[in-house]
Amino acid sequence: MKKEYLEKVQTIDDLITAFYACLGGEPGEKRDWEFMKFLFHPQGMKIGYEYDINRNFRPQWIHPNDYIERIGFWFNNTRETAFYERELGRVVETYGNIGHAFSHCQAFHSKEDMANNKPYKQDVKSIQLAYYQDRWWIINMFWHGVTPEFPVPDRYKKFQQFP
């Protein structure tokens, strides 16, 4: 375990901020996939509420290792535009050693688009977290795209934390 990795998982804020930063980059730019794996509990999952191959809108589970294998390959070899995410707001609640965050974010095809506030999509992520072994872990991350049918609630548009 790298010391700099451990420093980025001591608080929920640090962990979520690190998650968003680790995926960003230019086409073909190598990401630190070991760090992304480090953020998730070994049994954690990424779950996207997306269309499947039959155009059914449903949850789709992917283990971070599989995500890295599939999406990481695409980021590193095929994607023709950059990918950056920016978090706009977050509501965090904690109880004991568990935490939950609703995080509102935007995705961009370039740093220029990000500077000009031109996202190509927005999501709300539900992030389950656990504190043990002297650090925070992402247990599961479940996201849903923002649409006219499912707009972002006002409470997710600012940063709030409740112990």
TrEMBL record:
It comes from the Bacteria. This is SnoaL-like domain-containing protein. It comes from Croceitalea rosinachiae. The lineage of its organism: Bacteria, Pseudomonadati, Bacteroidota, Flavobacteriia, Flavobacteriales.
